Amino acid sequence: MNDSAMDKAKGKAKEMTGKATGDRRKEAEGRTDQAKGKAKEAMEDARDRAKGVKDSMSDDD
C-alpha cells in the first residue's frame, strides 16, 4: 500500500470512529487525512504523466 492510499485509509477510519463516538475533532482529522492522501495521489499522477511526456519526447529512434 502506497503512502497516499495509507493516508486515505487512515483518514476514513478516523472519520468513521469520530462519527461513531460523536467526536467531531477526530471526524475532521479523518477528512483532513483523506484530503492529504488525495493530494499525494494527484502529485504522484502528475509526476508519472510528466515522466511519460518526457519519455515520449526523447528521440531514441
H and E order = HH
Structural classification: mainly alpha
Low-confidence stretches: none
Overall mean pLDDT score? 91
Main beta-sheet strand count, sense and barrel state: none
- According to DSSP, the number of beta strands is 0
End-to-end Cα distance: 37 Å
Q: Helix amount, in percent?
A: over 70%
Radius of gyration: 17 Å
What percentage of the residues does DSSP assign to strands (E)?
Answer: under 5%
Kindly describe this structure.
87% of the residues lie in helices and 0% in strands. The protein has two helices and no strands. The protein is rod-shaped, with a radius of gyration of 17 Å.
Features:
mainly alpha, 2 helices, single chain, 61 residues
Q: Can you summarize this structure?
A:
It is built from two helices and no strands. With 61 residues, it is mainly alpha-helical.
Topology:
Layout: H1 3-21, H2 24-57
